[in-house]
Amino acid sequence: MATEFHNLQELRHSASLETKVFIQRDYTEGTVCRFQTKFPSELDNRIERTLLEETVKTLNSYYVEAEKIGGQSYLEGCLACATAYIIFLCMETRYEKVLRKISGYIQEQNEKIYAPRGLLLTDPIERGMRVVSFTVLSVQLEISIFEDQGSGTSSPSSSSMSSTGSAR
Amino acid sequence: MPGFSSGGVGGGVGGPASTPPRPFRPSRYTSSYGNNTVCHHFVVPSFFILSRCPWLSEYFSSVIPIYNAVIFLFTLANFCMATFMDPGVFPRAEEDEDKEDDFRAPLHKTVEIKGIQVRMKWCSTCRFYRPPRCSHCSVCDNCVEDFDHHCPWVNNCIGRRNYRYFFLFLLSLTTHIMDVFGFGLVYVLHHRQQLDTPHAAVTMAVMCVAGLFFIPVAGLTGFHIVLVARGRTTNEQVTGKFRGGVNPFTNGCLRNITHVLCSSQAPRYMGRWRRPLSVEVQPPFLRPPLTEAQLEAKVLDNGIQNDQHSTRSKSSLDQMESQSADAEPPPPPKPELHYPSLPRADTEESSLLTEAPPTPSMYKYRPAFNSPGRNHPAFTTPNKVHVNLHLQRWPWRPWWACWGGVKGHVRLLPDWALLHLLPIPSGGSHSSSMRSAHTAHNPLATLHSEGTTDTSYKSLANQTPRNGSLSYDSLLTPSESPEFESVVSPSTPLQGYTSPFLSAQIAQQREGQLLQGSATFSSPHRAYLHAVSPPPPSSCGPLETHLLQHNQDSSSRAPRNPFTSHSSPGAQIFCCLCSFVVLFEIELTPFLLCPPLPNGYPIRSTSRPVLANHTTSKPGGGVKKVTGVGGTTYEISV
C-alpha cells in the first residue's frame, strides 16, 4: 500500500469560501424600488462606509429614473397601444434600458472597488429586486486528510476539507 | 375577420427581444373560463360586426367598421397580454438568503411605510418575507408582486406587470360590448318593418347576449376604476386591509391613474439571462483604515484570541496548525465559530470578532474568516485567484417544468417524469437538503402549534409545505400550522400533488409505528435515512433527494394507520418526543460519519502528486501521526 504524504508547505490557497451579506429594500416611501443605505455591520472591516453608501445611493437613483413617470414612458405606452404591443418585440422598454445601465454600473463597481476588497456585489434584479447581496470572499487553505487503513491492505482514501469546516 | 378560436394567438408578446421567449402554456387554452370569455365576448360580437358592417358603412359612415375593428383588436391585444404576461412573479429565494431558519425568526416583519405599520409575512414556499402588496397565489404557487387577484377568465394572476393590460382589457371590452349593442340597436331601429328577417333576428339575439354580458363586465370595470382611483388592489379591497384606515400606497387619484396607465413596463424577474460574473479576485484584500476604537479593540482581541487558542478542544487540525507553525510562519487566524462573543465593551465599531451564530449547528450559515489577509505572509504571495462566479443561477427549472408555466417546482409531474431528471448546477444546492432536514427538527413544536397563533415563527410556517412540496419537511410534518395560507380550499391531489393532509397522515402513521415498537421501526427508519442521506456529489443532488422523497411518499401512501387518529394527548406528546429523539439521531448520524463542507461543497477526493518520500504503511521517522475527527488519522511529514 502506498500512503501518500504531503509536505505542509505545499498547502494551496483557494478562494472557496463565500458568505453573503444582504441589504434589504427600504419601503418607507412605498413600493418604489429603494434599498436601505444602512451599513451592514458584517462589512465593517471590509469596506469603507462611504463607498458602500455611495453605491447604494447611485443604485437608488437609477431605479428612480427607471420608474419615473414622464413623457418618455407615456409615449412608450401610447406607441405600444397603437401597435397592439407588437412593439415590445422590437424595442427595449425604458426600464430595461436602465437595468442594463445598472448592470454595467455594478460590473464597474465590482472591478474597481469591491473585488480588491474581496467583495462581490450582485445585481438585485436576479433576486427579484428584494435585496442587494454582497458575496464576501475569503481565501483559505486547502488541507488534505488521509485515512490510515491500519492493516495496510488497501490504498488510502483521501478527502480534502477546508480548515474551518472540519474542526468539530 | 375570422372568429377568434381558443387555439389562436401564441406567446411571444410581453417581453423585450433580449430576453428568452416565454414558455408556452397550453393550460391557458384549455381553461373553461377562458373558452367562455373567448366565445361570448369575441366570437359572437365579431361575427355580428362582420355581417352588419356593410350596411352600417353605407348608411352612416365608413369609419364605423374601422372603429369597430380597432376596438376589437385592442380588446384582443389586451386580453392576450393579460393572459400571457408574467404578472411579476418573484423567483424563489436561494438558500443562502434564509439564515434565520430557527425558532427565533418571526413569522411577520413590520415595516413602516409613510408612517403606517405594514406587516410582511414570511412565505414558507418562496422563502422570503413577502414585500408589501405581494401575495402568494395558491393556484399558480408563486408570490406575485402587487398581487391583485387570480383571474379565472384568463387563467393567470393579475399583478404589477399585467394589471394595466387587464384594466385596459376591461375598459375596451365594455366599450366593445356597448358598441355591439349600440350598432345593433341602430340596425334594428332602422329595420323595424323587417324584424322577421334572419338578419334582424340574429342582430336581436346578439344584442341580448351583449346586454347580458354587459352587466357583469361593466360592474367589474367600474369596480376596477374605483380601485385604480383609490390606489388599491383587489386583494386589499376584498380582505379589507384598509377599511376605515389609511392606505399608505396611494399618492392621490391622478397620480394613481397615471401610475397604472403611464408607467414604464416593469421588468420580469423570472427567465432572465444572467451573465456570469467573471472577476479576478486577488488577495491580499484591501482593508479600510481602522479607527482608534477599532485599534483598541484589536489590542484586546489579541490577548483574548490567544486565550481561545489554548482553551479550544484539541482537534487534529489544531495540532496540524501548531506544527505548521514550524513549517510556516503564523498560522491562519481562526474564525470564532464555536465561542460566543466575549463580554467586553463592545462598541459598534469593534466588530472585528464576528459573532457566532446563535445556535451552532452543522447546517448553519458560517461567517467568513475574521481577517485572512492581515499581515499574513502566506497570503501576500502573488497568487492570483480567478473567481469565475456563476453565483446567481436564476430560478432554473428543467425544460419539462416549463410546460406548466410558472407554476413552481417539479411537483406537478408524475413519478415517471421525475426519473428523467436533468442535472442542475449545484453549489448552494447541497445545503438545501441539509437545511430542509434541519427544519424537520421541530415536529415537537409543530404539534403544539395550535396554541401558538400569536407567537408564530417561521419554523412553524416552514413545516407545512404548500400543495405538497417535495421537501423533507413534508414527510415529517405531523400537523397543520395555524398560519396556513388564507386564500384557499384544501388542496386536492392533482397531477401528482401530495397534499399536506396526506403528509400529516404519513407522519401520524409513522408515529403510530414508533409507538408499536421497534419491530416496525425499521421501515420508517430506513425511509428517513433514505431521505436524509447526503446527496451524491454529482450535480443532480437535491433533485434526486426530491425524487427519493417523492418515491417515499408514494410508496408509503397505501398503508394508512387509523390507530393514531384517536390517540390521547399524552400519547401524542410521547410520540413527539420519540420522533424528535429518533430524528435527531438519524439526522446527525450521516453527518457525523461524513462531515460536510460548509456552504454545500461536496467532499472531494483529490489526487495529489506523489512526493519522493512516500513510504509503506508503517510510517518511519520524520512522520507524525495524529488522530482526528471520526477516527481518521493524519500523517504529517515534518
Automatic annotation (TrEMBL), chain B:
**Molecular function via GO:** protein-cysteine S-palmitoyltransferase activity
State which residue ranges cross the membrane: 64-84, 165-189, 201-227
Just give the chief location class: membrane
Report how it sits in the membrane: Multi-pass membrane protein
E.C. number = 2.3.1.225
Please tell me which top-level EC class this enzyme sits in.
Answer: transferase
Q: Which Pfam families match?
A: DHHC
Domain of life here? Eukaryota
Q: Where is the composition biased (Polar residues)?
A: 303-325, 449-475
Task: Report the InterPro entries cross-referenced here.
Answer: Palmitoyltrfase_DHHC (IPR001594)
The entry sums up its family as follows: Belongs to the DHHC palmitoyltransferase family. ERF2/ZDHHC9 subfamily.
Q: Please give the record's comment on domains.
A: The DHHC domain is required for palmitoyltransferase activity.
Q: What is this protein called?
A: Palmitoyltransferase
The species this protein belongs to is: Monopterus albus
